[in-house]
C-alpha cells in the first residue's frame, strides 16, 4: 500500500532523514518508536506532503507522490495525497465548527461531495465511533478522548487507504489508550493501513503488526529500545 525508498530530508545542514525504506501492506499496522528528535514526525509530514523531501521515492496505492526525489505534478500529487489521512497529536479540530461540521468540511471541499452525502457519511462514521449524541457539540464541549475520536472521524471521512497518527495517545489518560488501540485494530481489519508514531510502549505492543525504531534519521525494523 505504502512504499518508501531511500527517503532523505535535510533542514539546512541538519540531516533529519538519512535514507528511509518502509513498506506497509494493506491492512497492516506499522508502529514507529524512538527517541525525541529522531525524525519521526518529519517522516509523517513527508508522507503527508506537508514537508518536501530531498531524495527518494514515496508511493501510495501505486500512485507516486515523489519518484527519485522528483515530485509529481499538482494533480497527480494531490491524487496520491488524498489516499492518506493524518491525525495530529493535538487533534487540530476546527474550534468554531460543530462535530458534524468538522467531519463534512473536507469531503465537501476536497472530494466535492454534496452536503447531503457528506452528512450521511459523517453520521455513519460518528455512529461507528460512538459519538452520535455529540454531532452538534463544539470541540470545547468534548472530553480529550472524544476529541481524539472526532479527529479520527475527520480523517476517516475522506476514506483514506493509509491513516497516519502522531502520538495518538499522548493527550489521553491511560484508561483510554486501550480504546484507541481497539479502534485502530478494527479499522485495519477492514483493510486500512496504519502508520503510527508513539512513545507509549505498551500501546505499541498492543496495536502493532510490525514495530520499527527510528534514531538519528535511520529506521530499523524491530524494537531496539
Ligand atoms: N521545520 C523545521 N526546521 C528545522 N528543523 C526542524 C524542523 N522540523 C524538525 N526539525 C528538526 O528535525 C529533527 C527531527 O524532528 P522531529 O520532529 O521529526 O523528531 P521526532 O522524532 O518527531 O521527535 P519527538 O519524539 O520529540 O516528537 C529535530 O532535530 C528537529 O529540531
Ligand atoms: Mg514528533
From TrEMBL:
InterPro entries to which the protein is assigned, alphabetical: AAA+_ATPase (IPR003593), ABC_ATPase_HisP-typ (IPR030679), ABC_transporter-like_ATP-bd (IPR003439), ABC_transporter-like_CS (IPR017871), MetN_ABC_transporter-like (IPR050086), P-loop_NTPase (IPR027417)
SUPFAM superfamilies for the chain: P-loop containing nucleoside triphosphate hydrolases
ABC transporter domain boundaries: 2-224
Enzyme class, spelled out: hydrolase
GO molecular function terms listed in the Swiss-Prot or TrEMBL record: ABC-type amino acid transporter activity; ATP binding; ATP hydrolysis activity
Family label: Belongs to the ABC transporter superfamily.
Name of the gene: glnQ_25
UniProt name for this protein: Glutamine transport ATP-binding protein GlnQ
Keywords: ATP-binding, Hydrolase, Nucleotide-binding, Transport
Any Pfam family hit: ABC_tran
Record-linked Gene3D superfamilies: P-loop containing nucleotide triphosphate hydrolases
EC number: 3.6.3.-
Amino acid at each position: 500500500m505504502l512504499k518508501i525508498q531511500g527517503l532523505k530530508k535535510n533542514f539546512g545542514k541538519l540531516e533529519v532523514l538519512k535514507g528511509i525504506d518502509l513498506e506497509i501492506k494493506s491492512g497492516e499496522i506499522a508502529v514507529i518508536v524512538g527517541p525525541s528528535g529522531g525524525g519521526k514526525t518529519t517522516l509523517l509530514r513527508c508522507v503527508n506532503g506537508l514537508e518536501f523531501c530531498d531524495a527518494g521515492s514515496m508511493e501510495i496505492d501505486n500512485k507516486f507522490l515523489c519518484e527519485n526525489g522528483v515530485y509529481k505534478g499538482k494533480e497527480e500529487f494531490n491524487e496520491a495525497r488524498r489516499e492518506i489521512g493524518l491525525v495530529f497529536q493535538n487533534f487540530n479540530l476546527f474550534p468554531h465548527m460543530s462535530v458534524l461540521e468538522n467531519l463534512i468540511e473536507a469531503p465537501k471541499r476536497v472530494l466535492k461531495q454534496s452536503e447531503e452525502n457528506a452528512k450521511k457519511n459523517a453520521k455513519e462514521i460518528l455512529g461507528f465511533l460512538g459519538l452520535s449524541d455529540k454531532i452538534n457539540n463544539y470541540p470545547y464541549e468534548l472530553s480529550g478522548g472524544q476529541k481524539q475520536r472526532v479527529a479520527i472521524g475527520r480523517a476517516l471521512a475522506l476514506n483514506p487507504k493509509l491513516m497516519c497518527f502522531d502520538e495518538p495517545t499522548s493527550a489521553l489518560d491511560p484508561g483510554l489508550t486501550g480504546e484507541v488501540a481497539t479502534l485502530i485494530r478494527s479499522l485495519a481489519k477492514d483493510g486500512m493501513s496504519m502508520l503510527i508514531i508513539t512513545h507509549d510502549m505498551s500501546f505499541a505492543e498492543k496495536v502493532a503488526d510490525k514495530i520499527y525504531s527510528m534514531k538519528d534519521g535511520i529506521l530499523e525494523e524491530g524494537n531496539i529500545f
